[in-house]
């Protein structure tokens, strides 16, 4: 089976923030990210099973967020400009309300210049594990406080926290804690994996 990986387009002249945003708007049927070197990465859609898995996790997260009103959550179509210049779109992300409110409405309408407090990446068949691990490290370096990389193909969960080594669990039949970043949030992966 031939698995497609994200395609990276090398750009001779770097696009400004506005130019990249406009480029994405003009090609709104496609999903892009940009790395810290200015290379544009064309993202492939996930398979249907992975899309359903992502949705079930987002639903659990959304219920918690609605009940607690502590921040804003985002799906995989939201782009964020990190301090290293990369524009990334995590599968699931969350920003503490005070931080989100600290950027103006204009900035919120584009690829907001803020790194999410929490991110989750869920590996699909088109994702290379090393690529996702590098993205998770990039999130942490740029200010993410807690990140989960869920790899259902190798039945592993990688937990990223600023200033701590990555914790790897060799099972998906577990409960993930939101720790102090997402107080009271617990995701029972065994119930959403099906």
Topology:
Blueprint: E1 7-9, H1 17-26, E2 31-34, E3 40-43, H2 48-68, E4 71-74, E5 80-81, E6 87-88, E7 92-96, H3 97-101, H4 105-109, E8 118-122, H5 129-141, E9 146-151, E10 156-161, E11 167-169, E12 175-177, E13 186-188, H6 189-193
Low-confidence stretches: 1-5
Strand fraction equals 25-35%
Domain module count: 1
The topology string of helices and strands comes to: EHEEHEEEEHHEHEEEEEH
Number of strands: 13
By CATH, the topology is tt1808, chain A
Percent in helix: 25-40%
CATH homologous superfamily annotation: tt1808, chain A
How far apart the termini lie comes to: 24 Å
Choose one word for the global shape: globular
Q: Order of strands side by side in the largest beta sheet? A: 4-7-8-9-10-11
Key terms for this structure?
6 helices; tt1808, chain A; 6-stranded mixed β-sheet; 194 residues
